[in-house]
Amino acid sequence: MFDLAANAKGITQTLLICLIVLTGHASEIAESTHISAGSPGPDADASPAWLAGDHHIHSRYSVGWNNDTNPPTPILGGDAIYPIAMNAVMARRFGIDWMVTTDHGGPNHSKVHLNHAYPELLESREVVPEVIQFLGMEFDTPAADHTSLIFPQTDAEIQDLVQIEATFNRRESWPVDPLRNTPSQMLSALSAMKELSAPPLLIAHHPSRSATAYRKYGMTTPREMRSWNDLAPKIAIGMEGAPGHQAIAQSRARFEPSKLTQFLGESRPRGIYGSALGGYPTMGGFDQMTAVVGGFWDSMLGEGRRWWITANSDSHTHWSDGGADFWPGEYSKTYVFALKTPDSIFAALRAGRIFVVTGDLISSLEFRASTANRTAQIGQSLSVQKGDDVKILMKIVEPSVANAGGFSPMVKRIDLIRGEIQATSSVDYNDENPRARVESRFELDEPRKRGEPITLSLTVKNVQKSFYVRLRGTNTYEKEPLEDLDGEDPWNDLWFYSNPIFVETL
Question: What predicted TM-score, i.e. pTM, was given to this entire model?
């Protein structure tokens, strides 16, 4: 095991490391702009606000492994290179209010978390107090791909993480134990999480990155995510709508031939989708499970499931250092409507008070459904009588300053998507909702200034069946998000998505 004292000697050394690394990014950060959180939306006098975050960030404790030893010895910075405080400093610079450090596991990695990563996280919280920093990990999910495991801030947070990682993480044991990589092991893990006094959140990472084709899923399947949500609906709450690793084109432009060629082959897909790791690309930077209207996400919502989407960086190594990544908040943001406290942010994530955006296309979203005397907002349910009319209000704000790419994109269209809700399907592999559709398209052709609210509305008359509504918008003219091309510049193809509002008939 590497020696913490030799690698991270308290706050002073952590700060020194951050300063050293920052000097290498002076040209990039000098032109960057802090995109602050948007207005609270529904109530101008309310304390909560839209707070930007990122729940999938790697530090230098996403280690490499020396396999010449038994057990393998962790190599500091082997898979991701930055100190936790460095990530927090850059997150703050790019307008992030909260973040989660999610390092990979491996043989006996729970000891790395306990003895090394967690002390550095505590230091980082002191060094960068403006960013609320949660403890988490990229869980090596039994019988599936990775997931974010996010723990609430409590006195027991590290003990809870170590307990789950040591007992259930599929790569923790040495020698390798094949019994750790089974669906039943994952259900046992969720059962153990439910028993904790402060249960964590679980969000599926890049869910169809290993897909071989459209609707031909790989390591993570609809059946698995349904089983997780069935067992622990307050823990297994959703999936990444937009994966990280979106800066491959920037890396190639700066480093040709790319440092990533050995890992990715000759392709440079967004999110590392459609590369040697998978066979189907992202669509407008979003996973096919999210981007396709009437697809998997709509199938979950059509069953009435509270299944949310997020977006993040999956930051390992910045593109200016030859990696595939943007800094936290530089390109993707997950906004939650909350007070700027750990408990409120955590509760907002669990409740789905979330919208996601790439390229700072918008910074605030008000989205609500109402009858004469009741109102519901993102993540909430509105109970109505059959025959009621429901008014849908949408208000967005585009930032008044340029994004981190130096652009000032403008929303060209907003789509209101509607799907009917029926009883939970008995077909656990279902990935379609034929009752989901684009209800209305709003073309935004009128001249306007960035920073000024754009308000739209419509009324759903004479409601007879339960339904949900969700929003998406884009700076493109694509009616539906297209498959992303090899080497595509992500700044030219931006989208935002809201989580749903449920309208349920009594």
Answer: 0.92
